[in-house]
Alpha-glucosidase
Amino acid sequence: PGGAPWWTRAVVYQVYPRSFQDTDGDGIGDLPGITRRLDHLGRLGVDVVWLSPVYRSPQADNGYDISDYEDVDPLFGSLADLDALVAGLHERGIKLVMDLVVNHTSDEHPWFRESATGPDSPRRDWYWWRPARPGMEPGTPGAEPTNWRSFFGGSAWAFDAASREYYLHLFDPRQPDLNWENPEVREAVYAMMRRWLDRGVDGFRMDVINLISKAVAPDGSLPDGEVHWGAYGDGGPHYTDGPRVHEYLAEMHREVVAPYLAQGREVLTVGETPGVTVEHGVRYTDPARREVDMVFQFEHMGVDHGVTRYDPRPWRLADLKATLGRWQAGLAERGWNALYWDNHDQPRVVSRFGDDSPEHRVASAKALAVLLHLHRGTPYLYQGEELGMTNAHFTRIEQYQDVESLGYYRELTGRTGGPRLRTDDEMLAVLAHASRDHARTPVQWDATPAAGFTTGQPWLEVNPNHTEINAGAAWADEDSVLHLYRRLVALRHEIPVVALGDFRMLLPDHDAIYAFTRALDAPSAADGGETEGERGRRRDELLVLVNVSGSRQDVPGEVVSGWEDADVLVATHGPTDGIAPDDAGPGSGVGHRVLRPWEAVVLRRR
Ligand code: TEU
């Protein structure tokens, strides 16, 4: 364990600045607001903050459409405010990781403005410009260069009437894709990254970084083909993990990150890689390849929907185990997982895989926290997840603001010229389950009218349940979800087997119990006296038992036999007698364990 990198023992907290804490009354969170809340992060014990974009942006996609990578948008404050935040975090031993969004810029970025002046612009090939499909009238339906679709609905090509050419945007038309084939683009990105590292930033979360290499044919053309994310099993040409992506990431590591590591700086790089496969996940995170430290994979985010999240389906625990288990096994020898449930793009996990009813919300939030944080990898904790915050309960389309949610609402209800595939009510039900806005309601700090988030009109409605679900109440309640997260963070810091132990899934087909072990041969504490042989290697083992259901579950005997004398490391349902059964009383020797609804237990034996 001594040799393991620091981030194997770290927990990262994601701040979505727009919804974290407002201090100037405009109803939008800002940088001074984060600085004001640093004690909350300090008490949680997190090691790193990942800050979603605060750069200059027209806010077409809440800051993931950047018009100046090296200035702070006045919405959030100034560069001085950012320097103050970095200083405040570093004082508390917390690192700051910035969001690096370089698959695309905003259409208001000077680079794109220049590129769009015409085919002769020196920056024309900084982006993907293509003529209409051969034989088709430019600007007419079906004349787009390929049939690629945007992640936000509609075609991935926008028509420019002035040049009668199209430009590529895998996301919103206001987010034109940069052309990474062009070394000038890569150099400009690397120079910007170095300037942020020189400013004291400690690394990057790299937005959709596995999309930057497009599937260009040898003759430079872009192929047709129904395009989804690879992980959804289409097999066809898709955007993810393109032909040169590993070359680019190795170059970025060599050109930007390696020199700082050589100076002794601790720089964290995490790739957001939608649709990534385990095979590519190993290639991205194998330390010997020097690409990135870890990646966010998306397979487990797909167990409850079809190709897109707007096609929700019932989910099975066995599927969740199969995918999380596949990633644990796939990266066991080489590579490293970023573990998450929530982020600013996902609905709240307690409403999605837990049960956000008053009876089970706290217990299920705790159960899911234990489940995730005891896996092997670096856990990411999204703002409000530590409070057990739930999805919003919007009932009208006007309450939603997410560009992706609104894009699919309009497209699937036939408002963009295509067929009407869903009624308005059907789409409202889909959004109630899947919209990204659920993660973006303001953090609930206290029970006052706007939950202590703002003194003004919040940009997105505060969840009315903030009167019961808020940080003030949680800190005052030893049994809160928040205090459990604080203990889980401490466990990862203190007990090597939590961060580094080998993972073994149990009960793969059980549809309510999620069970696994972690094991590490830790060198026994040499207390002098012992001979070399006696010192030997001592095995430190955990058994994690989580009831992912609202009903009592019997843990099969073979799972718990041999753990009768184990210590109880975590027990979400208060004091527990370890393995002895609920009914036979302690010491009865009958080795089975009943798990109460949403109960999680972690046993340790050495
Ligand atoms: O996310 C890309 C991404 O995978 C999701 O937005 C995806 O479109 C959605 O979860 C599937 O329904 C990154 C950012 O995290 C996201 O906020 C941005 O909107 C997107 O890239 C474009 O920058």
The first helix runs from residue 31 to 36. The chain has four domains: 6-105+184-222+233-397+438-476, 106-177, 398-434, 501-605. The first strand starts at residue 12 and ends at 15. Residues 228-237, 577-592 have pLDDT under 50 and may be disordered.
